[in-house]
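lol ok so funny story. i was supposed to be doing the assay writeup but got distracted and ended up predicting the structure for this chain instead. priorities right. anyway since i did it might as well share w the group, maybe its usefull for someone
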Amino acid sequence: MPRPLGELEDAVMTRVWKWNRPVTVREVLEDLQQERSIAYTTVMTVLDNLHQKGWVRREAEGRAYRYEAVSTRAAYSAALMNDAWSQSDNPAAALVAFFGMMSEEQRRALRDAVRIVQGPEEGPEQGAGRGETRVTPGVADEKRVEKSVEKPDAASGETPGKESGENPDSDPGGTGR
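and the output, tada:
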């Protein structure tokens, strides 16, 4: 499992990930110098160390190198979370505690991620519930998130999104408009 990046390694990798293209030591140096005083040789050493650790690949360009990330920041974060979780003596309790620390936005992202991993639902009766998000596979292994079709609420006999007392005949075509 990966060790967490050091503070300077993280600052360098953040730029490599953000720019998402091969970068030179000079480009990283100039951007870092907006925040701190740092030498060219320090940035060169950090990128060389990141290359030796397998975080970046490099390609010679004249007398210098261009560096490119081997994986994404998301993959790095996931590996760190997995490593921390696997070290717990009670993985279920660790997850419950972790989920309890999450904001509502993070919980929504988690639910969406679980749906992506699980793939499409099996049958029409097992589809996403009213107002939930359904995730279906897209082209080239990418995932597409779609809103599910709203179904009548079986308990009340109402259609979601329609106010009680609305005339169901006011939409004779059933278009929902």
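The beta strands are 56-61, 64-69, 133-137, 143-147. The chain is about 40% helix and 10% strand.
back to the writeup now i swear
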